[in-house]
From TrEMBL:
Domain of life, per lineage: Bacteria
Translocase listed as a keyword: yes
UniProt subcellular location: Cell membrane
Domain ABC transporter, chain residue ranges per copy: 4-234
Membrane topology field: Peripheral membrane protein
Name the record gives this protein: Daunorubicin resistance protein DrrA family ABC transporter ATP-binding protein
An MF annotation (GO) of this entry: ATP binding
Source organism of the structure: Asanoa iriomotensis
Amino acid sequence: MEAVTAHALHRRFGQVSALAGVDLTVPAGSVHGLLGPNGAGKTTLVRILTTLLRPTSGTATVAGFDVRRDPDRVRASIGLVGQHAAVDEILSGRQNLEMFGRLHHLGGATARRLAVELLERFGLADTGSRAVSTYSGGMRRRLDLAASLITAPPVLFLDEPTTGLDPRSRGEVWDAVRTLVAGGTTVLLTTQYLEEVDRLADHVTVIDHGTVIASGTPSALKSRLGGDRIDLVVSSGDDLPAAAALLASLTGNTPDVDEDNRRVGVAVTDRMAALTATVRGLADAGIGVEDVTLRRPTLDEVFLHLTTDDTKLVTA
């Protein structure tokens, strides 16, 4: 079952086309990552899916309801967490959740019960009576997630939820998202952190200039970029040309050269054979190296390849 769908979705602002025919399918109970450079159309797409903006043309559904015909039912089926925590710093964590419950027309007893349950669920039970002004960044984001779930929506939109957080706080938010998905919530995640998508998403859609340029699992996207890679750092920058020529002759691929860091890397197919041949070739050529690494491509490399190269990668 699809929790979110979009077909041939267009949105124009005057002469500017923010979306130019976006197709999207998000299965229920999954995390779907939405990536793209600034101005690619991510925010416009999320605003349409959350009924904050009407599409110029095309169709979209959320939780089975059409965003044009049934906006009220869509809104009743979603939670939305923006880039900045929407909680009151003067109130306590529990009071914030109770307030959100009452804003959703829940009775006082029901709002209090749900507040206690959500504080426990997000690891905030011990701090629920404290003012939010005393919370860390990660605690505030977890409270924000809890507030978005006060009505138990089946679909949750997270718009760059860990922006500005330190690594520990980001990890806390990631754990909270995993808990949500384990409970059956569908998550559509937009983020600038490629590692975040790699850790959380079952599927990734990359948007650029208002169109989908790639779609697939994180693993599939990285594999399509060239499978494994060999990276090496030479001891002397003078050896960079020779090292690059060696890798090119061994693999038949064009290496990437980073002169500032004395680094050269190339895509390989037979990982162990390529590594062995590289180490032997470096020794025979008398090229000193500080480090040799065999690794998979990162989503950062995939993202840069897709959004800067003329050749676009599209998967089923």
